[in-house]
Design brief:
Elements: H1 10-44, E1 54-60, E2 66-74, E3 81-89, E4 94-101, E5 109-111, E6 116-119, E7 122-125, E8 131-132, H2 133-151
Parallel strand pairs: 4-8
Antiparallel strand pairs: 1-2, 2-3, 3-4, 5-6, 6-7
Keywords: Membrane, Transmembrane, Transmembrane helix
Transmembrane segments: 21-44
InterPro entries: DUF5412
Length: 155
């Protein structure tokens, strides 16, 4: 004769409790990962944290409404100069940094129209784009990895 045991529901409660704890731990890990990612971006890639630098030159847009100001930034004895460019209204109010390149020591500016400019060979729409050499090197690295994987196939 076989015995039949009645479940008192403890197993069900333990599984639910375990799931709740697991979800809370995963939420905490996700929040910590997001905070760490934001901190890394803020410390190393945020263009608002760039050094001010020494004024180099400025260039007015063709309609004379916007001004690009360029600054020469000295990183110290063991590094080369960098150029920082900020977009301003003609009256001097800063909009944002749109150009950061290293190593450079001059800013060659050519306006294409009222909102497109070429700075040292980098074409930018001043309202939609910015150039940051740090982000470009990451893009080139990722493109190199993708190209290597694409060409790496079977030999």
């Amino acid at each position: 004769m076989s015995k039949v045991y009645k479940s008192n529901g403890l197993t069900k409660i333990n599984v639910c409790f375990f799931k709740k704890i697991l979800i809370k731990v995963l939420k905490i890990i996700l929040i910590l990962t997001l905070l760490f990612s934001f901190l890394v971006y803020w410390l190393f890639f945020d263009m608002n944290r760039l050094p001010h630098g020494e004024f180099l030159n400025e260039s007015l847009s063709p309609n004379r409404k916007y001004k690009l100001k360029f600054y020469l930034c000295n990183g110290g004895a063991t590094t080369a100069f960098a150029i920082r460019g900020e977009l301003c209204y003609k009256n001097g109010l800063k909009i944002r940094n749109i150009y950061w390149n290293y190593p450079e020591d001059k800013a060659d500016v050519k306006w294409i129209n009222n909102h497109v400019v070429i700075i040292n060979g980098h074409r930018l729409d001043i309202f939609k784009e910015s150039f940051d050499f740090r982000k470009e090197s990451v893009k080139r690295m990722i493109e190199g990895i993708i190209e290597k994987n694409r060409g790496g196939g079977l030999h």
